[in-house]
Amino acid sequence: MEALDHKCPSCGAVLKFSPKEQKWSCDYCGSKFSLEELQKYKNASSVEVNQKKDVKVEQADVYRCSSCGAEIIADENTTATFCVYCGNTAILKERIQNSRVPDYIIPFQKVKEDATSVFLQLVKHKPLVPRTFKSRKNIDKITGVYIPFWAYDFDVSGTAKFKCIDTHTWSDYNTRYTKTDTFDVVCEGNMNYDKVLADGSSRFSDELMDSLEPFDYTSLTEYNHAFLSGFLSEKYDVLETQAIERARNRTLNTTVSLLQDKIRHQSITPVDNNISLKNVHSNYILLPVFMVNIKYHDKMYTFAMNGQTGKIVGCLPLGVKEVILWSCGIFLLCLAVCIALYFGGVI
């Protein structure tokens, strides 16, 4: 089986997508091409595929790099990877053929240097963070990955009931009074939601992926496999019919929250709702994410950056050695100050 790449029309070298310029560039001859220009050369046409919906292929295959001929091993969820020998992007045609092709993609607008800089700023002034999180070796592992998402459009209508409490306190000469008013409030609304996201890959934490939102849908463009050049890419392993439940729950919770925001009382508690969600339309899209995984004390810590907006999410642990050293340092400093004050006659 072969891995696809994108050849430079000028010199035949492999092209890579440049997020900064939103064009494809050649490292050898310096040429730059827009998607429209590549399509004129028939060098960025979509792969001819069978549009199969909700197909799951469980296998690992060996592909051959079209640049150096080396073998590339990929699991069932990889659609774009790198050749470890020559570094060229390998877009795995069979992986795309054996699953539903994405409808849309948001191309990367940040580059790896942006992600590296943001991560360095995150850990720079945190002395208690383990040293391994500041290691250049680990930071250099930051990789751009297109993550699969299902995006659902919903028409929502219905009512939500809330218990509301207002408390008013006053006092006279000797007595303090408290008046509590309780209300049953019912709110009704009709709303339309566009592209509610649900992570389509079981490899990544749903909470982590949710935290990367929002994405700017004005950059959403029709899918073309040429955008994968220079990045890793995953295909979904969570089916559209499975992911919709998460999207429905997110939409329902948001609807109740929006209705609650319209109420003007001191204490508001949701009690019940009768809200119906109608799925109007859904799309399979790829979204850009920079990721790095760092292992510390047998636990993997994942950090992710939105490849479009630059928003970063992740949790930094406290280093055991760092905490001990800083605690000892602070103790010794305080002890030295106390000794100096004592012998100086201050205390």
Secondary-structure blueprint of this entry?
Elements: E1 3-4, E2 15-18, E3 23-26, E4 32-33, H1 35-40, E5 61-64, E6 71-74, E7 78-82, E8 89-92, H2 93-97, E9 104-105, H3 112-124, H4 136-139, E10 143-171, E11 176-199, H5 206-211, E12 221-222, E13 232-234, H6 240-261, E14 267-296, E15 299-306, E16 312-313, H7 320-343
Parallel strand pairs: 9-14, 10-13
Antiparallel strand pairs: 1-8, 2-3, 3-4, 5-6, 7-8, 7-13, 9-12, 10-11, 10-14, 14-15, 15-16
Question: What does the model show?
Answer:
The chain has 347 residues and is an alpha+beta fold. The chain has helices at 35-40, 93-97, 112-124, 136-139, 206-211, 240-261, 320-343, and strands at residues 3-4, 15-18, 23-26, 32-33, 61-64, 71-74, 78-82, 89-92, 104-105, 143-171, 176-199, 221-222, 232-234, 267-296, 299-306, 312-313. Strands 1, 7, 8, 9, 10, 11, 12, 13, 14, 15 and 16 form an eleven-stranded mixed beta sheet that branches. A three-stranded antiparallel beta sheet has the order 2-3-4. A two-stranded antiparallel sheet has the order 5-6. The radius of gyration is 27 Å and the shape is flat. Mean pLDDT is 80; it is low at 47-60.
